[in-house]
Structures are given as structure tokens and as C-alpha cells.
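Review session, final week

We close the course with one last complete record, chosen because it touches almost every idea we covered. It is Aldo/keto reductase, a protein from Candidatus Ornithomonoglobus intestinigallinarum with 326 residues. Go through it on your own first, then we will talk.
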Amino acid sequence: MYKANDDRYKNMQYRRCGRSGLKLSALSLGMWHNFGSRDNYDNMADMVKAAFDGGITHFDLANNYGPYPGSAEENFGRILKNELSPYRDEIIISTKAGYEMWDGPYGNWGSRKYLVSSLDQSLRRMGLDYVDIFYHHRPDPETPMEETAAALDYIVRSGKALYAGISNYSPEQTKKMAGIMRRMGTPLVIHQMRYNMYDRLFEGRLENVLSYEGIGSIAFCPLAQGLLTDKYLKGIPEGSRATKSVFLTPDKIKDEQLKKTAALNELAKERGQSLAQMAVAWNLRGGLTSVIIGASRASQIVENIKALDNMKFSDDELNKIEEILK
């Protein structure tokens, strides 16, 4: 049985999630990629243990993560049972529902039928009585928001989740959902969105709404699927995400963007960091609760955690980053 590092909490930051009592590790481990049925179990277990040993307590999943859909939850359930079962109360486990999961009219979007059924399936796959955070993964243009909110309220009151969150909602949708949930007595605790140096939609209206409503924020894709690393500066390596993902294909890696990445990489070197570490630190420079990192091996997680060793940016560095990104 795995024994966790005794010093795991020494260097990690833990940030309050909005106005709730919940704190999240500044870095969270996401299982969108590399935890599916095609992936090696021992490597997956090593990544989870490296994360926990480094103070990462939040593990982020969704019902459709794989491939095949659901296999990431199954694999995490195995790891939890085989390696981390003594530490369940030290861990925050989140999952989501909102994208297509099974055939027919009840396996997608935001109805009460889909959300409750999906979470029941997720709990069975992971061997859990409850998850800590359950998200609605995307807004549903056809289901009344009140129905989706009532489903989240029921899920929390039933004990199947401790907290409710949303993901990929616009500022206006977030404000409306926050008001409905607050009136029900189960306030939204967290909003998950894409955010990195190249994707800046969080800044401005959404950030202001979350601050006003007291909702925490967590960003996925802080490294822009690897574009904010030095991985693609000399071409596309075999086996990299760009060779096997529909979300980052070779045609999306443009020369102009690579020039910006190269310039950012030079600035990171001046700071004594890798570009990945600087990108994570940049994401955490403001009011974000946490940043979700992905990985294909344990060493990447260890290196990303080192971003916390150098979190400060001078005004000159921030201005230089903005100049590069123009």
C-alpha cells in the first residue's frame, strides 16, 4: 500500500473557493487526457501519487473522460481503492455531466433526468458514496435553467455531492444560475473555464460576476494544450497531444503563434523557469482559486508544481508578456 509523503502540505498553496468554506490546492490534476482505457494503469497511478505527494488534493474528472467515456472515472476509482483509500478525506474529487454520454434523449445536456442518472453512474464507476464537487458541464439552451439548478440542489441535499459548480457558462448565464441557486439555498461554489495566455475570456465580465457572487474559479488548459510549453518549438514530436487529439491538431499550430511561444520561452528562461511553469504561475497571479494541469507522466506534474517557487511577476515582465501576445 502506498504511503503518502509526510511533507506533502509544506509547499502547496491552498486557496479559498469563493465565499465558501472549501479550499482547493492551487494546482489540481485533470484527467481529461491520459487516464482512459488505452492508457497504462501503472503510469496513471504514478501520476496521481506524484500529485498527492506534491500537495495536490483536487482531482478533476467528468463522466465522458476517456476514451471510452467513463473509463477515466473507472481508472481513478481503481487508483483510489488500491492506493489512496486511507486518504479519502484529504482529497477533493470532482466530476461533471453535460456532454453526450449515452444514446437516446436522456444522455446529454442539462435535464434533471440526465444529471442525476449520470452522477449515479459516476459514483458506481469510482466506487464512491459521494463526490466533493459536481458540475453542470455546459449550459443547455433548451432545458429551463431552473430545472438544471433544481437537479444540482437535489444532488447536494441528497448527499451525492458536497458542492455544486458550473462550467463553460457565459457571464450572463452564470449570474442567472447563481441567483437561482442562491434562492434555493445551495449556492454555486465554483465555475470552471478555459483560461491561459492565449485564451483570455475569463478576464473582465466573467471575473467580475464571480467576484460579485462569491463564486470560486478554476481554469483548465493553462498550457493551451501544450502550446505554452517548449514541446512544439522544433516541430511536432511523435506521440504528443497534437498527433492524437481532436482538440489540438497539427493545422492549429501556426507559425505566428510559435513565434510568440518562442519569445515567451525566452522570458521564462530569464525568470529561471520553464515556459510551462511560467504559464501556470501567470494564471495564478490574480484571483483564480486553482489551475487544472494535465500530464502524461509523473515527472511533468513534479515540474509543474515547481511553478509555485516563483509566482511573482514584475510590472516589466507583465508588460513584456502583453507585448509578445499582441
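Two points worth writing down before the exam:
The CA atoms of residues 246 and 252 lie 10 Å apart.
The first strand starts at residue 14 and ends at 16.
Good luck, everyone.
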